[in-house]
Amino acid sequence: MRATFMYGAGDVRVEEVPDPVIQQPTDAIVRVVRACVCGSDLHPYHGMPASGDPAPMGHEFLGVVEDPGSEVANVKRGDFVIGTFAYQDNTCDFCREGFQTACPNGGWYGAGGVGGAQAEAVRVPQADGSLVKVPASVDSDLLPSLLTLSDVYLTGYHAAHMARVAPGKTVTVVGDGAVGLSAVLAAKRKGAERIILMGRHKVRTDLGVEWGATDVVPERGEEGLAKVMELTGGQGSHVVLEAVGHMPAYEMSYGVLRPGGVISRVGVPQYEEAPIGFGSLFGKNATLNGGPAPVRAYIDAVLPDVLEGRIDPGKVFDQTVDLDHVADGYRSMDAREALKTLVVP
What we know:
This protein is an alpha/beta fold. The protein folds into 2 domains: about 1-150 and about 295-345, Alpha-Beta Complex (Quinone Oxidoreductase, Chain A, domain 1); about 155-290, Rossmann fold (3-Layer(aba) Sandwich), CATH 3.40.50. About 25% of the residues lie in helices and about 25% in strands.
C-alpha cells in the first residue's frame, strides 16, 4: 500500500510499504476513506531534522473496517468508522473520567510501531475504544464534517468545554486556523454572548463570522491587545481559547484575559516554559487549562449534530488532494494558501 512519511523539514514522501496486519487481538485494520493534513503536522514540517528513519504521518481518518482482531467487539468487518486521532481503551479510569488522551493503554499514530493515517490503510490499536461506527449509508457530502470529529472540530470543542464557555460570556479566540475557527463554532454552540476572533486572513475570518464571531481583530501585539480591551470596555475577556501554540499567542491570551478568567490552550505548545507569575496569571486569579483533546469523550454527543445538519464543520477543508499529492497539501497549508487539506487515498 501507499503511505506518507516525513524525512525531515519540508521533505514529505509517499512510499509503497507492506499492508498493516493485526498484531494484537484488540487491533483492527481500517481501509482509509478520508484523511487530512493537521496544523500540528506543520510543526515537524518546519523543524524536523533530516533522517533516514522517517516518521509515518497522519492521525485523522475515516474508513471501513477491513479486519477486526479476535477480541474486537464494538465494530465488525465492513463498518464505516471515525478514527479518533489518538487511540485509547476507553475503559480505564482516565478514559471514564473523560481524559482519553491520558489512557495508559493508549498512544499516538505514527509512533511506537503504529503507522500513520495518511495512507491507504492503518492499524488501529485498542479498536473498541478508538473507532466510532457511523451509518454506512451516510451521504458523501457529510464526509468532511465527519472527518472533523476525528480531531479538528472536537479540539476546538475541547477548548470551549475546558474553559466552561456559557451563555453571557465573552470569548476571545486567538488564531484563525482550522482549530481556531472550530473553537468559534463550538463557543457559539455553547451560547457565548460575544466572540472575538483574532486573525488576519479575511477568507478565514469570514468563515469565523459565519460561525458566530461577533468581532474580528486582525491586529497583533500591543495593538491587538488594545483593540480587544477596547471592545470589552477595558475589562478583558471571560474566556480565551488559544489555538496557535506559539509564545506570542500565549502572551496575547493572558493580556486580554479579565480577572478570574480562563485560558484554554489547544494549540500544541512550541515552547517549554511560559509566564505564570503576577504579571500574567497569578495577579488575575486566572485559570490555565487545555491540552490534547479527548475527542472520544465528545464524539457521541456531537455526531448527531453533523448527521442531522445542525453544524457543518467540514467547511474548514478548502483543498482536496489525492494521496500521491499529499506533499502539495503540506506546502499549500504551510504557505497559508489552504486552510486545511483533505486527503483522498
